[in-house]
């Protein structure tokens, strides 16, 4: 799985979890608030509670918009989003409890909902810290309600609920911590899969490259050129086109090796390969056929056109300056050219081009023979 897929997967999970809070907070904010208003547990108008919920929905969609527009979303974005959401609900929670007045004991349902959502991303330490934070927030609201607002009628029930809330919240924290551990395990597994996949892809590319190219020059090898020739012949049959085959052999290459050594000979072969790649098209297939011999397959090209291209390539090769340890070396090549149709046998075409190559050698080298 590549980076983009992992990012989209994590982004989808984060957006789904974020949007689900709209439903989660609808229960305490809308349903319970309506219950408190109906039973006269609060004198606050229900429109205030609806306003809180509407503001919360806008906040959730703002978070969703942020997640959607992050270019490369990773697991590390989760805690950042959690902090933002925690700060928001930490601010809205006491306001909502105070508005509930005598019905604020039921606000613990809101706390539990909040914690269940939160612990899915946290750890046991986070659970304890948030439990403590919520507990102090709740007790502060009780203090304000009792001593400042004179709402003492439900105080005993609030103490009982607070006592029951603490162990329940610890259990929720433990479950959430285990869930977070599993999420971290999944994250590590995804990272390992990503690394393994990247290593396998790199190894596969190296194997494919080694199987199809010449190690020294980087050109195609004999096996890959044969595959290309079969493919181009089939294409020529469909399009009713011709192609040409060039066999090129360096002149006096053995003398270069004997005089300057095989390292110099390797550098000459690389130089010739670069020169050929520069003069032929990207659609042409250039291969090191063996030793100092090269083969070029030019699809959808007739003999007259290819003669001009090959002549320019050989002329350029003979004019290019090549030095080995300050010693100038003259590089020339002889070549045989053959036109192929879809019905031409590949072995016959190579044989004809090879015969013409030897004719070029016999005529004095540094030339092309095409007929």
How many domains comprise the coordinates? 2
- As residue ranges, the low-confidence spans are none
Alpha-carbon Rg, integer: 39 Å
| Gap between N and C termini | 55 Å
Physical arrangement of strands within the biggest beta sheet: 2-3-1-6-7
What is the SS-derived class? alpha+beta
Q: Which whole number gives the mean pLDDT?
A: 80
The backbone outline, from C-alpha atoms, is rod-shaped
Helix content: 55-70%
DSSP strand tally: 7
- Strand share of the residues? 5-15%
Count of DSSP H/I helices: 11
- Main sheet characteristics: 5 strands, mixed
Order of helices and strands: HHHHHHHEHHEEHEEEHE
Notes on the protein architecture:
The chain has 371 residues and is an alpha+beta fold. It folds into two domains: 3-198, no CATH class; 222-369, Alpha-Beta Plaits, CATH 3.30.70. It has eleven helices and seven strands. The strands form two sheets. The protein has a five-stranded mixed β-sheet with strand order 2-3-1-6-7, sandwiched between helices. Strands 4-5 form a two-stranded antiparallel sheet. α11 (346-362) links the parallel β6 (333-340) and β7 (368-369). α3 packs parallel to α5 (124-148), α4 runs antiparallel to α5 and α8 packs across α9. The longest helix is centred in the middle third of the chain and has 58 residues, at 155-212. The model has no long low-confidence stretch (mean pLDDT 80).
